[in-house]
């Protein structure tokens, strides 16, 4: 099943795909989940209810995906846990020794934007970099979960572009500020439930394109710590709850490692595409211009 959070009539709504059609679930039937979090928390019962409603959805519920405003898959996750240096080629290009324990850091919900929303280059820096990744959304509470059962706790997967302001990422040993500028975390366009994909989203092609030029291309098989390992390791220390997000890391090809560096600038368009999950597209805009337009 493929679901999206959309904006319609000034309100966030949950939508689901029926083939190529996008259906506003608020008009597809009664008693359906009204948000992505409600869907995730609702488990199999919520999924079955949506599947039944999609077959009978009225024409008034049908949306044109090209004219729909997409919001982040989850606008306010309880936790967004990112994984750094999770592809060996990216660790090498960044000058880091490959760690033997996941490099974890937090990202905040104020950074999140949806599909086709502008990714914001801040006025403080011109070093806005792309990082194409997959995000795993937790569907069941996980604490001290063994790796063999870890994937049972995944509701689904989405595409993520973890925009990083490199100048600020490396101002201090902790990366927090450079990874948390407002409007730099693109998340969408849709959540694809785990049963639609290979276990752990393994073996999928991940590609990032800047202005149509491929700048990252890798298989998710190349992750040093796969999704099951990440859930098992993180849940040793941190309780994962429904709606939490794990952003699993980026492969080689980032702009800061290129000679000369390749940073995103206003007017650029960045695309991240993951096989079987979707295509996430975001134009780049300058913070000052966005403020003036508001």
Automatic annotation (TrEMBL):
Q: Which keywords annotate this record?
A: Hydrolase, Metal-binding
Q: Tell me the GO molecular function terms.
A: hydrolase activity; isomerase activity; metal ion binding
Origin: domain of life? Bacteria
Write out the GO biological process terms. carboxylic acid metabolic process
What organism does the record attribute this protein to? Bosea spartocytisi
As recorded in UniProt, coiled-coil segments are none
| Name under which the protein is recorded | Fumarylacetoacetate hydrolase family protein
| Gene3D superfamilies documented for this protein | Fumarylacetoacetase-like, C-terminal domain (3.90.850.10)
Q: Which Pfam families match?
A: FAA_hydrolase
Provide the Fumarylacetoacetase-like C-terminal domain boundaries: 79-284
Q: InterPro entries from the xrefs?
A: FAH (IPR051121), Fumarylacetoacetase-like_C (IPR011234), Fumarylacetoacetase_C_sf (IPR036663)
Family statement drawn from the similarity comment of this UniProt entry: Belongs to the FAH family.
């Amino acid at each position: 099943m493929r679901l999206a959070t959309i904006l319609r009539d000034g309100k966030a709504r949950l939508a689901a795909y029926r083939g190529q059609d996008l259906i506003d679930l608020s008009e597809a039937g009664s008693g359906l989940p009204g948000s992505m979090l409600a869907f995730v928390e609702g488990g199999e019962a919520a999924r079955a209810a949506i599947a039944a409603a999609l077959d009978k959805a009225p024409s008034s519920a049908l949306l044109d995906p090209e004219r729909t405003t997409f919001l982040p898959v989850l606008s306010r996750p309880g936790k967004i846990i990112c994984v750094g240096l999770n592809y060996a080629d990216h660790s090498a290009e960044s000058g880091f020794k490959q760690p033997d324990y996941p490099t974890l850091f937090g990202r905040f919900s104020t950074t999140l934007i949806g599909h086709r929303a502008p990714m914001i280059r801040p006025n403080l820096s011109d070093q806005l970099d792309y990082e194409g990744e997959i995000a795993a959304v937790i569907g069941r509470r996980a604490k001290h979960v063994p790796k063999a059962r870890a994937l049972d706790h995944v509701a689904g997967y989405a595409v993520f572009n973890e925009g990083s302001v490199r100048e600020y990422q490396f101002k201090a040993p902790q990366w927090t500020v450079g990874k948390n500028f407002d409007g730099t975390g693109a998340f969408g366009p849709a959540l694809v439930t785990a049963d639609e994909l290979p276990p752990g989203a393994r073996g999928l092609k991940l590609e990032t394109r800047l202005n149509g030029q491929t700048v990252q291309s890798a298989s998710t098989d190349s992750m040093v710590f796969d999704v099951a390992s990440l859930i098992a390791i993180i849940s040793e220390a941190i309780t994962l709850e429904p709606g939490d997000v794990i952003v699993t890391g980026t492969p080689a090809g980032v702009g800061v490692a290129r000679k000369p560096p390749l940073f995103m600038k206003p007017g650029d368009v960045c695309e991240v595409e993951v096989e079987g999950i979707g295509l996430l597209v975001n134009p780049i805009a300058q913070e000052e211009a966005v403020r003036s337009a508001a």
